User: Fold this.
Amino acid sequence: MTDAIQAHLTTAREAMAEGRAADARNSYARAAALSRESGAPLLQARALRHLSDLDREADHPDQALAHAEQAAALYRANGQGASLDMANAVRLKALALDSLRRQEPARLAWTTARDLYAEAGIAAGVAECDARLSA
Assistant:
């Protein structure tokens, strides 16, 4: 089933590159569902992270937040709590919280994302978090 999940992730990336956000969302949702059914939590987290980003771009911050939190929980539960993927999930959580005007939880998420990006050596991630925290 991992091949089917990867196929949906690939289709979603291609749809995004072609500007077909709805098709990308459908493919990411299928990948997340198949991952959940087959017990592939890291693939599920990846799909959820991309769904969060698409939801945020479509101005659905509540859904974006839920997907980002689910992705982060899966990374944490599967030994990826200090990974770049986790940093990206926490960043998406912070963006959703900003959209929802939940300032203190957003600040905490930006701080956590910053620390994770710093640990991973991702200067651009650190810089974005610093800019958000100083705004």
Notes: The two ends are 45 Å apart (CA to CA). Residues 42 and 75 are 7 Å apart (CA to CA).
